[in-house]
Amino acid sequence: MIIEYSRNPLNFHKMENPDVTHHDSNPLCGDSIDMDLKFDGETISDVSFHGSGCAICMACTSVLTELVKGKSVSEARGLEKNDVLGELGLEHLQAVRIKCALLSLKVLKLALYKHLAAAPEGNADVLKEDAASLY
Question: Which residues form the NIF system FeS cluster assembly NifU N-terminal domain (predicted)?
Answer without folding.
Answer: 2-116
